[in-house]
Amino acid sequence: MFDTSHPRAGPQPSPWVGMVYFAGVALILTGGFQAIEGLLLLPRDDLTQATADALSIPMDLAVWGWIQLAFGAISVAAGIGVLYGQFWARIVAIVIGTLSALANLAMLPAYPFWSSVVIALDMLCIYAITAHGREIGT
């Protein structure tokens, strides 16, 4: 059924390759979550659990909605690029993952559970991509 007579040339990828694929999918998911959060804040900023004054960095929640929407779109694009093994996508994914974690840290008072989940996923993605991201392209 499978031809095992010709072993694959070059070094075999580590089992962490699956984690890098997970990171790509997680970037797409967290980007989608952030885009949804941003879209929800644009028309109705009263959906949060805290007011803009209670945030770590006080700002208009509609502005925050646009920021979350932009982070989400970039995360989705970087996640797709990571799945295809693109070097630029790994760099963008690390940068956007870091910015996303910091942004969600600022949003903790407004979305405590949601922000915590996104921060945890961002950290997992950053680790997998930095430690084993180059194994996808090989």
TrEMBL record:
The family database entries (Pfam families) matched by this protein are listed as: DUF7144 (PF23636)
Entry superkingdom: Bacteria
Q: Which residues form a coiled coil?
A: none
- Where, by residue number, does the polypeptide cross the bilayer? 20-41, 61-80, 87-107
| Keywords assigned | Membrane, Transmembrane, Transmembrane helix
Ranges where the DUF7144 domain occurs: 19-134
Would you tell me the protein name for this molecule?
A: Membrane protein
List the source organism. Actinoplanes siamensis
